[in-house]
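Annotated sample (chain length 425).
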Amino acid sequence: MNYSDAERMSTILDSLGYTKTDNESEADLFIVISCSVRQSAIDRIYGKVRDLNQYKKQNNNLKTILTGCVLAKDQKKLAKVFDIMLEINELNKLPKLLGIHTPVSVISSVAEESLSSIPEGSLQQGRDDNYFGITPHYESTFRAYVPISTGCDNYCTYCAVPYTRGREKSRPMAEIIREIHDLVTSGYKEITLLGQNVNSYGNKQFVALLKQLDAIPGDHRIYFYSNHPKDISDELINTMIGLKHFPHYIHLPLQSGNDEIIRKMNRHYTKNQYIELVAKIRKAMPDITLTTDIIVGFPGETGEQFADTVDVMEKAEYDMAFIAQYSPREGTVSAKMIDDVSEDEKRRREGVLQKVLARTVLTHNKKLVDTTQRVLIDEVKKGQYFGRTEGFKVVEIKTDQPLQIGQFVDVKIESASSWKLGGCL
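Output written by the structure step:
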């Protein structure tokens, strides 16, 4: 989502005549797009302050901006460092804040047309055209991130998003379809639908959206991220089986495998319900790639409670897991709880889960040896090509043929490790 924020910011800055520089010290404008999910992300901003102060000594005209997800406490502290504090859903105010009063239109014609075609009382109510209506200047020529909603209504006790991005708002379906149609027509091969709780889009309109997007002709694939287990419906699972452009890939955040910790997190499911959901998904799509998010060391988490998370890790057999050590974010509910798990124990628990993950990923990856996988080339390092399978697994490709970034190729998988596949054309 922060990546998409930056692309929308670029649209406005380009229209104002700004150009990017790879040299921070020569910049006239320095923008930080914050993520408040973890304290470590905010700590990096504080760590950047020293550089900003040095740049300002070299350039008296330098302006600094902080935007993205920023909690009230951090806003108060960082306001002393940054010249401008900008709400991410008020990007249209940027020209005025920079002292540029020439009218600049940044709302896309796509947004204007789709707004005029939506019946009264539907999704445009509560939407924010100051964000959704800005057509991003995509950084990539083959991979695009498309927000279909912003904000969140779940109020997980550890999460800052509802306080920084507000309540959940969904874009009109017509606008999303038009944007993705244009991307596919322009040759984009991989598109990811974004939302803090992407599958709650439009109050149960998510499946309808996927069906409409799947009907767009072309050679491309579409992912969606991030899901909430409570909103993964039977209709969604059964629909995914027959979709052409949506790989069998689901990101299904667990966060914890213990019922008491799940309750304290305000996640609205149980360990058994989660395990049953995984079984249902795997039965419907045996080739599914399943990934997750997990927090270790949540306040009050005992060794026995952590063992429940290990149990789910072993039973779910994920292909990837993003494991985070709990860090309190002041302003969230969990920040009022006692952070009583030591840093050493958090690291130990993370290590335990990483070992389980490495075993399960290796098991899955070995099953791909001697198969042919469709791979999207996305990187070249020292003449070596790398790409991603439909399950988003990294493949190192041996070939004498010249390949292009953004090209689909069929690769025969010859080797597998926990974190990478090897293959040839």
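Annotation: Residues 107-127 have pLDDT under 50 and may be disordered.
Annotation: The chain has four domains: 2-97, 107-247, 248-367, 372-424.
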